[in-house]
Amino acid sequence: MASPQPTILTTQSDTFPYPPHHSFPPFYTLQPNQSTLLRQLSLWSQLIQSFCSHHHTFKLSISSAASLPLFSNAKIHRSLDALSIKKVLDFMASAEGEHRAEYVGKDKSTAWIWWKSAAEWAEEIARWVDETGQKGVVLTIYELRESEAVEKQEWVGMDEDMLRKCLDVLVKKGRAQVFGQADGSGVKFF
């Protein structure tokens, strides 16, 4: 069962520190020059990752993304259109964009935003396991995503499938074993 995503702030009280280029009008029009476009896509990728990290969200719905303050600046009357947002996410999902986005489902209407890579999340989980003495203990996926024991960890609320990708990194390194496929499945750390 997927947990609800945290609400992203969209009010004037939004405390996210936007970089200076968020107020630069040409930033909202994808540039025709290939090297300029590559730099622009990279800046958008960094901005999206920072925004999602700040708001503790792991997923963007493409249909509602254009309404986020991330993709618009009312002070300069500029916004990134839906087609351009899709191009930015395509870039982020590519090797050139360091796979910082990943489409969920065949319709590509939603994307996970990897503001930390699966390997980085795996290391963070492994560090928590070491620090809390969980080696040799079997924990459920639910406990890793939602329990009081992890309530202050950055991965709390991560989609189950996304969390499983992170755990797969530990499995491949021989540092964990996952039992079962349902939400009640367990993970043993070594």
UniProtKB/TrEMBL annotation:
<dbReference type="GO" id="GO:0043328">
    <property type="term" value="P:protein transport to vacuole involved in ubiquitin-dependent protein catabolic process via the multivesicular body sorting pathway"/>
</dbReference>
<keyword id="KW-0653">Protein transport</keyword>
<dbReference type="InterPro" id="IPR008570">
    <property type="entry name" value="ESCRT-II_cplx_Vps25-sub"/>
</dbReference>
<comment type="similarity">
    <text>Belongs to the VPS25 family.</text>
</comment>
<protein>
    <recommendedName>
        <fullName>Vacuolar protein-sorting-associated protein 25</fullName>
    </recommendedName>
</protein>
<keyword id="KW-0963">Cytoplasm</keyword>
<keyword id="KW-0813">Transport</keyword>
<dbReference type="GO" id="GO:0016236">
    <property type="term" value="P:macroautophagy"/>
</dbReference>
<dbReference type="InterPro" id="IPR036390">
    <property type="entry name" value="WH_DNA-bd_sf"/>
</dbReference>
<dbReference type="GO" id="GO:0042803">
    <property type="term" value="F:protein homodimerization activity"/>
</dbReference>
<dbReference type="GO" id="GO:0005198">
    <property type="term" value="F:structural molecule activity"/>
</dbReference>
<dbReference type="GO" id="GO:0000814">
    <property type="term" value="C:ESCRT II complex"/>
</dbReference>
<dbReference type="Pfam" id="PF05871">
    <property type="entry name" value="ESCRT-II"/>
</dbReference>
<dbReference type="InterPro" id="IPR036388">
    <property type="entry name" value="WH-like_DNA-bd_sf"/>
</dbReference>
<dbReference type="InterPro" id="IPR014041">
    <property type="entry name" value="ESCRT-II_cplx_Vps25-sub_N"/>
</dbReference>
